[in-house]
Amino acid sequence: MLETGALASHFTLLGTDGREYSLPRSADGRPVLLVFFKTTCATCDLTFPYLNRLREAYPVGWQLWAISQDPADRAVPYAQQQGISYPVLIDAPEFVASRLYDPPATPTLFLTGESGRIEYSTYGFAKDDINEIALRLAEHLAEQPNVIAPASDGNPAFKPG
To answer: Containing domain of residue 135, as a range?
Structure first.
């Protein structure tokens, strides 16, 4: 797994929208949150509603890319089911990005900053980690931080991936 402070590995993947996404070129010097997932991952099912809230809380100035380790024929219906409105990139079957980032579980999240370095990473689901990512994004965007994963919302504080 890429460590915090490491230069984010460069890759190009095709999105389900037919566009190519390339890190760092497509990032345009903005923070990017990469989310590696599988369509059969129950922890991913728990995580995506929080990521959708994160996107709603901070709608501009950064990018959120969901990187599917499944082929498009499974990723597209899953994205629709999860309400994912941001780019879904297909890493299967070659696993170009997965080989570079080596996520230990799904979901695994990597936040890259404007410098192109990994600023924060986590795997599995943890409300504290989601809120930390929200705080870091708020700092990048010079906005007030939002609590994305409140403790009392009925979901567990942690679930391994």
So the answer is: 11-148
The DSSP string of 78-112 is HHHHHT--S-EEE-TTTTHHHHHH--SSSSEEEEE
Report the alpha-carbon distance of residue 116 to residue 104 in Å, rounded: 21
The token pair that represents 7 in the structure block? 């230069």
Q: Look up the CATH number of the domain holding residue 72.
A: 3.40.30.10
User: Could you tell me whether strands 125-126 and 88-90 are parallel, antiparallel, or unpaired per DSSP bridges?
Assistant: unpaired
Does any domain span residue 50? yes
Q: Indicate the number of domains in the chain.
A: 1
Whether residue 63 lies inside any domain: the answer is yes
Per-residue pLDDT of the chain (161 residues; tens, 9 = 90+): 999 999 999 999 999 999 999 999 999 899 999 999 999 999 999 999 999 999 999 999 999 999 999 999 999 999 999 999 999 999 999 999 999 999 999 999 999 999 999 999 999 999 999 999 999 999 999 999 999 999 999 999 999 99
Sign of CA dihedral 93, 97, 100, 106: negative
Tokens 């943890």 belong to residue = 126
Which one, of 38, 94, 104, lies nearest residue 66 by Cα?
Answer: 38
How many helical (H) and strand (E) elements, i.e. helices and strands, does the chain have?
4, 9
> Is residue 5 included in any domain, yes or no?
no
- Tell me, yes or no, whether 157 lies in a domain: no
